[in-house]
Amino acid sequence: xxxxxxxxxxxxxxxxxxxxxxxxxxxxxxxxxxxxxxxxxxxxxxxxxxxxxxxxxxxxxxxxxxxxxxxxxxxxxxxxxxxxxxxxxxxxxxxxxxxxxxxxxxxxxxxxxxxxxxxxxxxxxxxxxxxxxxxxxxxxxxxxxxxxxxxxxxxxxxxxxxxxxxxxxxxxxxxxxxxxxxxxxxxxxxxxxxxxxxxxxxxxxxxxxxxxxxxxxxxxxxxxxxxxxxxxxxxxxxxxxxxxxxxxxxxxxxxxxxxxxxx
Length: 263
Description:
By secondary structure, the chain is of the alpha+beta class. Helix content is 48%, strand content 8%.
């Protein structure tokens, strides 16, 4: 008999909403203080400048508000854990839409407008509402968990590109880490490798002998930011292992063929 499917991880919707709002606020305050020289730097993401990256983060909130303004869909098509695998095909479309939506206004104005629209939309809608999205219709509750990924990943991008120290909300970091860990387990189901990302997540993945007690024979352990950078293609597996940011033990404890999960 095949093993029973694991119940999807539950997230506290109140904490997720608070984390998304707070993280967007952290970025908005930092972006408002960027100097012209910083805005012109490369973001490290293709041909985007820091200004382009900052505008894209504003679009994350603006597009959430726009989704809430559309009529609801009937049923969800995509879960939060499946979301990372659907992002690659829409990267160009999202970038183009962000540029069209946000062109022509100073960044502080974009952030103020987006924050207000997001707050109004969230206040008026329950987590069970199903949003019509390019990527696939999702409940608001699930989509907000994916917003923690977008905001945490791009906050880290912005910090590194512009030499900033924007804080990352613990709840946002936890949700981002857990979602990407669960997506790995979905991509490579099994129980032969245990992936530990303390203090937020432990998952088992990859087909093979399953351990039932004691220390598993194949273990990967890393910190949350390193895991997020690996899962989103910001850091290569070999680079992280060589720098001792990843500890991998066991003949199956090489995740390089499975990463990144999204880019």
